[in-house]
Amino acid sequence: MNKKIAFIGAGSMAEAIISGMVAKKIVPTNQIIATNHSNKERLSYLEEKYDVQTSQDRKSTASGADVVILAMKPKDIKVVLEELDEAFHKDTIVVSLLAGISTTFIEKNLSLPLSVIRVMPNTSAMIGESATTIAKGSKASKEDVVTVVTLMQSVGTTNLIEEEKMDAYTALAGSAPAFYYYMVEAMDQFAKDQKLDEAVSKQLMTQTIKGVAAMLENSEDTPANLRKKITSPGGTTEAGLKVLGEKDFQEAVVACLTRTQERSKELREDFEK
Ligand SMILES: NC(=O)C1=CN([C@@H]2O[C@H](COP(=O)(O)OP(=O)(O)OC[C@H]3O[C@@H](n4cnc5c(N)ncnc54)[C@H](O)[C@@H]3O)[C@@H](O)[C@H]2O)C=CC1
Ligand SMILES: O=C(O)[C@@H]1CCC=N1
């Protein structure tokens, strides 16, 4: 793709997307540029590791780009839009990764009627395995959406969604890797407690998750049916599941996702004031 891509913010999510894009060679590395608040070492690290450009001049970084990806924290949205507003040109596509922040708010804070597209990836973008949702703002053309979908497909799968559902999808895929990792941390603790071989345990846990993911993707069974096929009456799985039931595991997961969704809404309420 012959587009210049600028990242405003050079933290974990910017790195995950840069890493995925560079690996897929979606744009030449000299067309990718990142800037941040003040951490020069971080920019040098990205330059060295991914061979991308970096700059401490945020305005020129934005003005030289076709696609500007906002990758700072939601709390910084106002100050960044104020700083960059005059750097945008009439064809700039503004992509926001910011949890909670609406396209309407971004549009309202821009002088030009630009294409604003909201994207919720996850950190698996790093290895091309993000599950990304994309919602278009009111002024985004079909062509601009195609550009952003193409870019994001270089780091994983994409789904176009209605923006009103973005808070829920943020829970289900943006934040969710952390919830799966949390469960694996607990399994890892069990492996340590039982003095299992570290390498063998890691391989088993990883392969088990891959197998589960592949079954979910390829089997016609529901998750509940897949679970039942593992659960022999009076067997080991049934005994383990009984404990999860007693500890309200499923209620805890639903409560976790509900709170994550609510927090996304709160970020909007807090930082769009
Ligand atoms: N980490 C994740 O798994 C995901 C994060 N996101 C979103 O991505 C965004 C970034 O998240 P992380 O990378 O985790 O944060 P981070 O804290 O790792 O990085 C934030 C970056 O923004 C920069 N920054 C702060 N103020 C700035 C300013 N005024 N101008 C330019 N740069 C500035 C910082 O220097 C830093 O490089 C957030 O809005 C978050 O909601 C979305 C999906 C997943
Ligand atoms: O925790 C957060 O706010 C960000 C958004 C989704 C994943 N990380």
Observed structural traits:
cytoplasm, NAD(P)-bd_dom_sf, ProC C-terminal domain-like fold, Rossmann fold, 13% strand, binds (2S)-3,4-dihydro-2H-pyrrole-2-carboxylic acid, single chain, 8 strands, 2 domains, 273 residues, amino-acid biosynthesis, binds 1,4-dihydronicotinamide adenine dinucleotide, NADP, oxidoreductase
CATH topology of the largest domain: Rossmann fold
The structure class reads: alpha/beta
Low-confidence runs: none
What proportion strand?
A: 5-15%
Assembly type of the chains comes to: single chain
Query: Can you count the helices?
Result: 12
Amino- and carboxy-terminal Cα gap? 37 Å
Provide the CATH superfamily of the largest domain. Answer: NAD(P)-binding Rossmann-like Domain
Number of domains: 2
By CATH reckoning, the class of the largest domain would read Alpha Beta
Return Rg in Å. 21 Å
